[in-house]
Every structure is written in C-alpha cells, then in structure tokens.
Amino acid sequence: MDEPELQDKSLVTAYPVLRPDRLWALLVLNKDSSRAHTVEVKFHNESNGSESKFEGAIDLYQYSRKQYELSADKLEPYPIKDQPPEHRTLRGSTALVMKVPAYSITVIRGTVPVPSH
Hints:
5-stranded antiparallel sheet, elongated
C-alpha cells in the first residue's frame, strides 16, 4: 500500500492474510473521518525483495457512510441507513490503485502469484 502524499500513515492501515483456500485477503481501514485516500496494493516478498500484485478476478467489498449511517441521538443511537457493503469484481495483473472512502472498511480478495526462487 503506497501513498507518498499521506502524512500520517496510521490513518490508513492494511492487514493481509493468506487464507486456507490459498487466496489472499486484504483488510484496508481508512480511519480518516473527513477524506478518502488513494492506495496502491502490492505484496512485497521480504526474502527475495520481489513484488507481486493480484492476478485474475479480484473481489472488492467496501463498507462506508454510503451504506451505513447512525442517527444523531446521543443517548440511544440507531441506524438510519443499514445496507450491505458494495461489491465489485475487478481484474488483476496490473497495479491495483483504488480510492478508499472516508471512515471505511475495504476487503480485497484474490490470487497473488507465488514468486519463483
């Protein structure tokens, strides 16, 4: 995940996991309440210095204010908008550059090629 102009990198964090079905899943959290951020997704292999990107079909799920909104009631807040996350299918093999909305959760799932030694 790269964004050179992002001053406080702790506002956008990413958590990768290799699933038992050999797909990679990446959870991206944008904790910035006021602005979206653009991120580039790459996988860096520490052992040989190579970089890989998603290939083939990529599932992208985003959950943000577009899908959920809480009432202004401070004592007993309740959801006034509660929709399922947005889902898109993307193609891999190129750099995955995407915008993560303000205060959002993004999950990306797909295949990453295993580098040859």
